[in-house]
Every structure is written in structure tokens, then in C-alpha cells.
Amino acid sequence: MGIKVSLSSVRRILQRHHCFDGARKPRVKKSNPKRPPAAAPGELVQTDTIHYVDPYSGKRLYYYTVIDLYTRMTHAVLATKLRPGLAAQAVLEARERWGFTISMVQSDNEPEYGRYFEQTLKKAGIPTRHSRLGRPNDNAHIERFNRTIQTECIGHYWRRNIPLSRQQAKLASYLDYYNNDRVHLGIQLRTPREMLQRF
User: Fold this and answer.
1) Which residues does 105 contact at the CB level (< 8 Å), separation at least 6?
2) Which end of the chain offers a freer environment for a tag, N or C, measured as fewer CB atoms within 10 Å?
3) Burial letters for 79-95: b for 16+ Cβ neighbours within 10 Å, e otherwise?
4) Rounded CA gap, 135 and 60, in Å?
């Protein structure tokens, strides 16, 4: 026919005939539970993965990170593989180390946080939810922790000359410092351990 019509014209015509209300479809599964307020330890925990790739060898390292939004207690696991089981293991280890129950875990929509991750945590009695697509602020606390741990501990690039055992020891030492000695502006210059003891 040779007639060119802009997208805005099509939208305007559809709106005129009440065929289009202008609303976008929701981008998250309808079964996604509502985000709970973080008013107590374990009410909402966020998890994410830091990916490292050695540009020379192509080898990869992954840091599975976990943070409790109320206390700011953190946990991280270093691994050489990207697997849903390892992501779930990091959350379960965090629960054991922190000493309180986890009511809800929130993650992004990466493959390691898919069905196997959800089922593993469901068996442990922990429900999961996902952040909304295109909304990085939904996971702001874990993203900020990831930036902090990269700046203060592990760096932004994988140093392949450092043995894995040394990297794990350095990570464990940093997590001990972060949870017990490092004060946080977001929790009125308290440490995560002090926040946990206050509750």
C-alpha cells in the first residue's frame, strides 16, 4: 500500500477506540510474593552473584553474596562454578552462621536463581521472590554490598596469581570484620552485630 504510519498514531487510534489503555504488562511473574518490610532480622534477605573472568585464561570465579536488610549481616561464598545449588547453599550457610531464621529471600532473575534454587530453599522452609526486571533498585542493598566488598576486599579484577585458598581466607577475614567491627551509616553508625544484639 505504501502508507507509512507512526507508532504514536497507531497508539492514538487504539486509545480513541478504547482498545489500548496505555498500561504496560507486568514484567514479573504474578506468583511473585509481595516484598515484606525488613523490620526484624531475617524478614528480608537479598542475594546476588559477583562474576569474575580472567581475560587471559578465560577461567571464572563467582562470589555468591547474601545480606540481611535489617541487621546488614552478610555472608559470601567463593566458587569456581555458577550453579543454582551453590547459590542456595550460600543462603543456607548464611542462615546457619547468623543464627536466626530467614522469612524471605529476594534475588534477581539470573539463571542461578531459577527453579532449582527456589525448590531447594522451599524444602528448607524459605520462600523466594524475584526483583522486578529493569529495576536494579529492588536489590539496592546487595548491589551496594557487592560494590563495597569489591572496593575493600576482593578488588574489581581476578588476580590469578593468588591461590584460591588465600582468596577464601581473605574473604572470611573480611566478612568477620564487616559483620563485627565495621560501622554503617545506614544503621546509625552501628555494626551489624550490634543491630542483631539490639533485637
Assistant:
1) 45, 46, 47, 91, 121, 126, 127, 128, 129
2) N
3) beebebebbbbbbbebb
4) 27
Q: The dihedral of CA 67, 72, 73, 76: what is its sign?
A: positive
Q: Which residues of the chain have pLDDT under 70?
A: 1, 20-30, 158
Query: In CATH, which superfamily holds the domain spanning 45-198?
Result: Ribonuclease H-like superfamily/Ribonuclease H (3.30.420.10)
- DSSP one-letter string for the chain: ------HHHHHHHHHHTTS--SPPPPSS-TTPPPPPP--STTS-EEEEEEEEE-TTT--EEEEEEEEETTT--EEEEEESS--HHHHHHHHHHHHHHHTS----EEE-S-GGGSHHHHHHHHHTT--EEEPPTT-GGGGHHHHHHHHHHIIIII-SS--TTS-HHHHHHHHHHHHHHHHHT--BGGGTTB-HHHHHHH-
pLDDT digits (tens, 9 = 90+) for 38-47: 999 999 999 9
Ramachandran sector of residue 155 (left: φ over 0; alpha: ψ -120 to 50; beta: rest): left
- pTM comes to 0.82
Reported as a single tens digit per residue, the pLDDT across 39-86 is 999 999 999 999 988 777 778 899 999 999 999 999 999 999 999 999
